[in-house]
Design goal:
Strand content: 5-15%
Shape: globular
Number of strands: 10
Largest sheet: 8 strands, parallel
Strand order of the largest sheet: 9-8-7-6-3-2-1-10
Order of helices and strands: HHHHEHEHHEEEHHHEHEHHEHEHHEHH
Length: 396
Amino acid sequence: MHDGVRHAAPALAAGLLAGVLAGCSGGGGEPPATTTSATTSTLPSAAPQSTIPEPQPEPEPSEAERRVPADLRAKVASLMVVGVADYGQARAALDQGVGGLFIPSWADPALFTEPGRDINALRAEYGHPFSVAVDFEGGRVQRHTEVFGAWMAPRDLAAQPPEVIRGTGYDIGRSLRAHGVNVDYAPVLDVDVSDMDIVGDRAFSGDPHEVARVAALFSRGLIDAGVTPTFKHFPGHGRASGDTHLALAVTPPLEQLHGLDLVPYGPTLDSLPAASVMVGHMIVPGLGAEGVPSSLNPEAYRILREGDYPGGVPFEGVAVTDDLSGMRGLLDYAPTAEAVERAIAAGADQALWSSGADVAGIIDGVTAAAASGQIPPERIEEAATRCQQQLIDAGL
């Protein structure tokens, strides 16, 4: 009997222990795996963290991006710079939403001087900001001197002390801005080495480094006065075969432009990135498709944007075409409406035509090309943003 008690005790203890463990598991006959799962779920996980990045908020649009019109036609219209001869034509162009007016030599000077019917009155009347441009280099090319005054030729200016060069730019800029003008299609960066009459004393020098030096001083003066300078005629007209006002002209091959004609652009754009650049109509062998004028040539805009030439720097300012209506060389190649569309598609931010003809029709044509995808929507968007940034830089 004592041996029976002795053998029964371990069995009783084992039974009690099993009951205690069953009670700790919450009873109900749950398998032990449940206990393990519940216990390990409270411990730090050893599994690797997810590598999916957290979604980032969209960057806030810049002021220029916010000012770009949402409507496609209005966006396209903001890329147009059209010539106007009088107050009525200016109002008609602005009614179409154009982003810029160009005042040619044949325009009524009252546009600058008649209270209530001048550029400043138009700025007060219209809700959207717009640019106003003139050709005012000094010397042979200075429009409406009866309003703005007269200054020496660029070649003569280059011989003056630095303070006179910059001061002349400032004096010209002050006169332009007082009459509503905020863009000057000057200075010329062409290098005068071929005795070509269309260049001549409009160029500062036959030395490209001297051209860069004087152009930067003159342009700083304009900027000090609130006027945007425009370097022209990219990629270089100084050695073209003729005057593009009269016929298509051909320059030396691109690799030869690298050593002379393009040299002034790198330093001036590096020091004055807020300037604009006018792309000329010259055909440059080796620059993109054969026989295409630079103003309609995507490769011309590419090298300008990327600074893809010796000493070049990337350029994010406004690229404007030379006149697409008043120059025989370009008109022999493409009519104005086609040229405007091709220029914008190629990379121009502003298409300029001095005649101011068929504004509504040309805007409609480019809008249709953009709506169909013939001109990529991002091309229109980037151009419109640059145009707005130029207006902001000018305080408009």
